[in-house]
Amino acid sequence: MSTGVSELGGWAGVLDAAVAVRAYRGEIESRDAGVIAAVGGATVLALIDGLGHGREAARAARAAALVIERAQSDDPEHILQACHAALQGTRGAAVTVAIVDAGCATVRMAGVGNVSCRLRRAADTGELATPLRGGIVGASLPRLVPSTRQLASGDLILLHTDGVRDDVDWSVLRTHGAALAAARLLDQGATGTDDAGVVAARVLPGESA
Ligand SMILES: [Mn+2]
Protein backbone atom coordinates (compact mmCIF):
# COMPACT_ATOMS: atom_id res chain seq x y z
CA MET A 1 0.00 0.00 0.00
CA SER A 2 1.36 3.41 -0.91
CA THR A 3 0.28 6.84 0.14
CA GLY A 4 0.38 9.96 -1.94
CA VAL A 5 3.14 12.47 -2.15
CA SER A 6 2.64 15.73 -0.34
CA GLU A 7 4.24 19.03 -1.13
CA LEU A 8 6.36 20.10 1.77
CA GLY A 9 8.59 22.34 -0.23
CA GLY A 10 11.48 19.96 0.25
CA TRP A 11 12.04 16.26 0.23
CA ALA A 12 8.86 14.22 0.04
CA GLY A 13 8.59 10.48 0.08
CA VAL A 14 5.99 7.79 -0.26
CA LEU A 15 5.49 4.88 2.09
CA ASP A 16 5.53 1.21 1.15
CA ALA A 17 3.89 -0.65 4.04
CA ALA A 18 2.92 -4.26 4.71
CA VAL A 19 1.56 -6.50 7.46
CA ALA A 20 2.59 -10.10 8.09
CA VAL A 21 1.04 -12.20 10.85
CA ARG A 22 1.43 -15.87 11.64
CA ALA A 23 -0.75 -17.67 14.19
CA TYR A 24 0.92 -20.00 16.64
CA ARG A 25 0.53 -23.59 15.54
CA GLY A 26 -2.79 -25.09 16.51
CA GLU A 27 -4.46 -21.70 16.78
CA ILE A 28 -7.07 -20.86 14.17
CA GLU A 29 -7.00 -17.16 14.82
CA SER A 30 -4.01 -14.96 15.59
CA ARG A 31 -4.00 -12.74 18.66
CA ASP A 32 -1.55 -10.51 16.83
CA ALA A 33 -3.16 -8.08 14.41
CA GLY A 34 -1.58 -5.43 12.20
CA VAL A 35 -3.23 -2.36 10.73
CA ILE A 36 -2.25 0.03 7.97
CA ALA A 37 -4.69 2.89 7.59
CA ALA A 38 -4.82 6.32 5.98
CA VAL A 39 -5.92 9.39 7.94
CA GLY A 40 -5.88 12.51 5.85
CA GLY A 41 -2.50 12.36 4.16
CA ALA A 42 -0.88 10.49 7.04
CA THR A 43 -0.38 6.74 7.34
CA VAL A 44 -1.22 4.92 10.56
CA LEU A 45 0.82 1.80 11.26
CA ALA A 46 -0.26 -0.28 14.23
CA LEU A 47 0.43 -3.68 15.72
CA ILE A 48 -1.63 -5.35 18.45
CA ASP A 49 -0.96 -8.36 20.67
CA GLY A 50 -4.17 -9.48 22.39
CA LEU A 51 -3.44 -10.75 25.89
CA GLY A 52 -4.46 -14.17 27.07
CA HIS A 53 -5.46 -17.13 24.97
CA GLY A 54 -7.87 -18.25 22.32
CA ARG A 55 -10.90 -16.50 20.96
CA GLU A 56 -11.19 -13.90 23.71
CA ALA A 57 -7.69 -12.62 23.00
CA ALA A 58 -8.28 -12.67 19.26
CA ARG A 59 -11.52 -10.77 19.77
CA ALA A 60 -9.76 -8.06 21.79
CA ALA A 61 -7.11 -7.76 19.09
CA ARG A 62 -9.78 -7.42 16.40
CA ALA A 63 -11.63 -4.80 18.43
CA ALA A 64 -8.48 -2.71 18.73
CA ALA A 65 -7.74 -3.14 15.02
CA LEU A 66 -11.24 -1.92 14.16
CA VAL A 67 -10.83 1.20 16.30
CA ILE A 68 -7.53 1.98 14.62
CA GLU A 69 -8.88 1.35 11.11
CA ARG A 70 -11.71 3.80 11.78
CA ALA A 71 -9.62 6.38 13.63
CA GLN A 72 -9.99 9.93 12.41
CA SER A 73 -6.97 11.13 14.37
CA ASP A 74 -3.34 11.22 13.32
CA ASP A 75 -2.21 11.41 16.95
CA PRO A 76 -0.92 8.12 18.44
CA GLU A 77 -2.01 9.15 21.93
CA HIS A 78 -5.61 9.71 20.83
CA ILE A 79 -5.65 6.40 19.02
CA LEU A 80 -4.29 4.49 22.02
CA GLN A 81 -6.84 6.18 24.28
CA ALA A 82 -9.63 5.18 21.89
CA CYS A 83 -8.36 1.58 21.95
CA HIS A 84 -8.22 1.69 25.74
CA ALA A 85 -11.88 2.74 25.90
CA ALA A 86 -12.95 0.09 23.39
CA LEU A 87 -11.12 -2.74 25.16
CA GLN A 88 -12.64 -2.19 28.60
CA GLY A 89 -13.91 -5.53 29.89
CA THR A 90 -11.51 -7.57 27.76
CA ARG A 91 -8.18 -9.04 28.86
CA GLY A 92 -6.62 -6.12 27.04
CA ALA A 93 -3.80 -5.86 24.58
CA ALA A 94 -0.34 -4.53 23.90
CA VAL A 95 -0.61 -1.90 21.16
CA THR A 96 2.01 0.19 19.38
CA VAL A 97 1.09 2.93 16.92
CA ALA A 98 3.43 4.72 14.51
CA ILE A 99 2.09 7.54 12.36
CA VAL A 100 3.96 8.74 9.30
CA ASP A 101 2.96 12.16 8.09
CA ALA A 102 2.14 13.02 4.50
CA GLY A 103 5.41 13.32 2.63
CA CYS A 104 7.18 11.00 5.10
CA ALA A 105 9.06 13.76 6.89
CA THR A 106 8.50 12.30 10.37
CA VAL A 107 7.19 9.29 12.24
CA ARG A 108 5.47 9.70 15.63
CA MET A 109 5.35 6.58 17.77
CA ALA A 110 3.79 5.50 21.04
CA GLY A 111 3.09 2.12 22.54
CA VAL A 112 1.75 0.33 25.59
CA GLY A 113 3.05 -3.14 26.36
CA ASN A 114 5.67 -5.13 24.54
CA VAL A 115 5.14 -4.49 20.83
CA SER A 116 8.47 -3.13 19.63
CA CYS A 117 8.86 -0.25 17.22
CA ARG A 118 12.23 0.23 15.55
CA LEU A 119 13.50 2.62 12.97
CA ARG A 120 16.27 1.19 10.82
CA ARG A 121 18.19 3.98 9.17
CA ALA A 122 19.15 3.56 5.53
CA ALA A 123 22.07 5.95 5.83
CA ASP A 124 24.02 3.81 8.30
CA THR A 125 23.52 0.80 10.51
CA GLY A 126 21.86 2.89 13.18
CA GLU A 127 18.66 1.81 14.79
CA LEU A 128 16.31 3.75 17.00
CA ALA A 129 13.90 1.87 19.21
CA THR A 130 10.88 3.44 20.84
CA PRO A 131 11.02 2.94 24.60
CA LEU A 132 8.23 0.59 25.63
CA ARG A 133 5.78 1.70 28.28
CA GLY A 134 4.45 -0.89 30.69
CA GLY A 135 0.69 -1.24 30.91
CA ILE A 136 -2.27 -2.88 29.24
CA VAL A 137 -4.54 -1.19 26.74
CA GLY A 138 -8.06 -1.81 28.06
CA ALA A 139 -6.95 -2.27 31.67
CA SER A 140 -4.24 0.15 32.78
CA LEU A 141 -3.07 2.88 30.47
CA PRO A 142 0.22 4.49 31.52
CA ARG A 143 1.16 8.07 30.83
CA LEU A 144 1.96 8.02 27.13
CA VAL A 145 5.25 9.40 25.89
CA PRO A 146 5.22 9.59 22.10
CA SER A 147 8.52 10.13 20.34
CA THR A 148 8.96 11.78 16.96
CA ARG A 149 11.77 11.02 14.52
CA GLN A 150 12.80 12.52 11.22
CA LEU A 151 12.61 10.17 8.25
CA ALA A 152 14.82 9.86 5.20
CA SER A 153 14.60 7.88 2.00
CA GLY A 154 15.24 4.19 2.52
CA ASP A 155 14.45 4.20 6.23
CA LEU A 156 12.57 1.12 7.44
CA ILE A 157 10.03 1.25 10.25
CA LEU A 158 9.49 -2.12 11.90
CA LEU A 159 6.88 -3.02 14.44
CA HIS A 160 6.95 -6.54 15.84
CA THR A 161 5.30 -8.46 18.64
CA ASP A 162 7.08 -10.55 21.26
CA GLY A 163 6.56 -13.57 19.02
CA VAL A 164 9.48 -12.25 16.97
CA ARG A 165 13.01 -12.28 18.38
CA ASP A 166 14.93 -9.05 18.91
CA ASP A 167 18.23 -10.48 17.72
CA VAL A 168 17.56 -11.29 14.07
CA ASP A 169 20.08 -10.19 11.46
CA TRP A 170 18.47 -6.90 10.52
CA SER A 171 20.92 -6.32 7.68
CA VAL A 172 19.03 -8.79 5.49
CA LEU A 173 16.08 -6.40 5.49
CA ARG A 174 18.12 -3.50 4.21
CA THR A 175 17.19 -3.53 0.54
CA HIS A 176 13.80 -5.21 0.59
CA GLY A 177 10.40 -3.70 0.00
CA ALA A 178 8.01 -3.75 2.92
CA ALA A 179 6.18 -6.98 2.08
CA LEU A 180 9.36 -8.99 1.66
CA ALA A 181 10.98 -7.42 4.72
CA ALA A 182 7.94 -8.35 6.83
CA ALA A 183 7.91 -11.90 5.45
CA ARG A 184 11.68 -12.29 6.01
CA LEU A 185 11.37 -11.04 9.55
CA LEU A 186 8.63 -13.57 10.31
CA ASP A 187 10.56 -16.32 8.59
CA GLN A 188 13.82 -15.67 10.43
CA GLY A 189 12.59 -14.20 13.67
CA ALA A 190 9.42 -15.99 14.73
CA THR A 191 10.02 -17.62 18.11
CA GLY A 192 7.66 -20.51 17.33
CA THR A 193 6.19 -20.30 20.83
CA ASP A 194 3.66 -17.52 20.23
CA ASP A 195 1.76 -15.77 17.47
CA ALA A 196 4.13 -13.62 15.44
CA GLY A 197 3.25 -10.26 13.93
CA VAL A 198 5.15 -7.65 11.92
CA VAL A 199 4.30 -4.33 10.33
CA ALA A 200 7.04 -3.03 8.03
CA ALA A 201 7.11 0.30 6.22
CA ARG A 202 9.82 1.57 3.89
CA VAL A 203 10.21 5.23 2.99
CA LEU A 204 10.68 5.54 -0.77
CA PRO A 205 11.68 8.61 -2.73
CA GLY A 206 8.64 10.41 -4.08
CA GLU A 207 8.22 11.53 -7.67
CA SER A 208 9.91 14.86 -8.22
CA ALA A 209 7.61 17.70 -9.14
MN1 LIG B 1 2.69 -12.29 21.99
How would you portray this structure in words?
With 209 residues, the chain is of the alpha+beta class. It has one domain: PPM-type phosphatase domain (Phosphatase 2c, domain 1, 4-Layer Sandwich). It is built from 3 helices and 10 strands. It has a 5-stranded antiparallel β-sheet with strand order 1-10-9-6-7, with helices on one face. The longest helix has 17 residues, at 54-70. Residues 49, 161-163, 194-195 line the site of manganese (II) ion (MN).
SSE arrangement, N to C: EEEHHEEEEEEHE
Amount of beta strand: 25-35%
Overall body shape: globular
Class of secondary structure makeup: alpha+beta
CATH superfamily: PPM-type phosphatase domain
- Helical fraction equals 10-25%
Which parts are unreliable, with pLDDT below 50 for 5 consecutive residues or more? 1-9
Total number of strands? 10
Distance between the termini: 21 Å
Small molecules bound = manganese (II) ion
CA radius of gyration: 16 Å
CATH class: Alpha Beta
Instruction: Please count the helical segments.
Output: 3
Looking at CATH, which topology would you report? Phosphatase 2c, domain 1
The strand order across the widest sheet is 1-10-9-6-7
